[in-house]
Amino acid sequence: MKTMRFYSSLALLALLVSFASTSFAQVGFTLHGTLASPTLDDVNNKVRPGVGAGLKVFLGPQVAVGAAVKYISLKYDKTEAVGQELTNTTSLVPITGTLDLYLTKGAVRPYIGGEAGAYIRSTKVRFNGNEISSSSATKFGAAPKAGVMFALGNVGVFAEGTYHFIFGSKDGSANTGTPNNIEWKNPDKLWGLNVGVTFGIPN
């Protein structure tokens, strides 16, 4: 729990600073769908679906900071035999701080940016609908991104590509815990495509 609180605090830091440091501060809200292809554990993993939401604070027409959360379904296996059912599900929930730099102010706004924070991976096994096993791990992750937004008044329709790096723990523990325990070498990787809508963008 301490690990999750630590990284969640990091994810929200930019948002809190923005409220304290700017008078522009226009707030936007984002909803999007996600397609992701992980290299976690199984190189044969297929493209997986997900959803996400975020809060953006525009420090000006071309700069936004905020916080975001996503849910990505990494794996779903179901086995049925003689009236019995066994399911195995694995999901990834990134909770991150975000930065977006818009390159233009017009109707078409290409942008670059990034996000960083806690990546929470959970696995659950159910037998006949009853949970018999569960586990979770919280690691630090970061992702550069690039995309384009089409502005329609105060609403923006966007598509962006991301490439996530999920770092392990130096001591091999499931939860990284502190920045000093982040293992920067050989991170797991996850590419993603997000398509969605942002409400409350600057004109």
Automatic annotation (TrEMBL):
Location of the Outer membrane protein beta-barrel domain: 12-165
Keyword Signal: yes
Keyword Metal-binding assigned: no
Pfam families: OMP_b-brl
Signal peptide: 1-25
Gene3D superfamilies xref list: 2.40.160.20
Superkingdom field: Bacteria
Keywords for the protein's UniProt record, in alphabetical order: Signal
Name of this protein: Outer membrane protein beta-barrel domain-containing protein
